[in-house]
Amino acid sequence: MPQINYLTRIEFDFxxxxxxxxxxxxxxxxxxxxxxxxxxxxxxxxxRVLDAAAPHTPAIYDRTTENPTEQSLLECMHIxxxxxxxxxxxxxxxxxxxxxxxxxxxxxxxxELADYDVKTGGSAxxxxxxxxxxxPTAAGTGAEVGRACVxxxxxxxxxxxxxxxxxADLVICDPELTLSLPPRLTAATGIDALSHGIETYCSTxxxxxxxxxxxxxxxxxxxxxxxxxxxxxxREARWHMMMASLMGGMCLQKALGGAHAMATPLGxxxxxxxxxxxxxxxxxxxxxxxxxxxxxxxxxxxxxxSPKAELHDWMxxxxxxxxxxxxxxxxxxxxxxxxxxxxKAAQDHLSATNPRPxxxxxxxxxxxxxxxx
Length: 373
What we know:
Number of domains: 2
Number of strands: 9
CATH topology of the largest domain: Dehydroquinate synthase-like, alpha domain
Strand content: 5-15%
Helix content: 40-55%
Oligomer: single chain
Radius of gyration: 19 Å
Strand order of the largest sheet: 1-2-9-6-5-3-4
């Protein structure tokens, strides 16, 4: 079984979940709080993980919403204190994993979520957090090795805490847990993994190791995502997509760009992150044309497409080909909502590493184009 030590310790292979109980013991955890969602429970994955955790019996929170909220955080904090928990196990996609990071943060540091917002400098104060194990069940966000925690506050606004100290102490990547993921969710999460490789590779930060990992994430996702969507029981495709997702999370150290800067405020409309990224990515690639030519050439090679191909056209076709929408109107976004989204995108910390500088007016134009596709 491959054991990967990069940012944290990662157990990666079919059947890796079987070692969970031993890992809980090895880490010295006594009463973990397992955070997941009702879909994971309904699919039988939660019970499988609880069986693997034996002889340990975690407390359970299974009400994580699609976009994690501060309300869920408060509910988890109540369980933590009521049950005497000492650690967190995240089971699911990016939402349970981000919620678990927030629980680990507040149980170790105190205060309120807003105290750690990256925009106010609060993230720099984050030290070692409560122990965590992350178990992804989708191949997309790479949140299991990501340093960021994205949450919706009680007032509905999004905030992000960013610090390497929030990466889980152990990650268990078992592609077996993704075999039952439906095609639409496979596509939406997989596009997020692909986008991480693309945007980090194009970002203005210089980080050659992360760039190399990002380019490989692109190669894997571009090559294997259509097969994973078409044939979810293809174990080879699932293995490669989980690896693409993991590597997409590893390369986030190089930062992202404009597509994610726009997706964060759009997420306040309770829209799926990966679906948004699939719509926005072609438009930011068109906007960035001529400002990242060397990176674009490398990306074409990784995607195995013609050196003369327009990346934005290829991306639009790719997104539509795996069954995802290619315009914001399909998600119910209205034109009158776009100015506020553009303003927030221009202020987002990820905008600073987009290869072509973008201001509010630029984002508004991009969003207007994305509205109709």
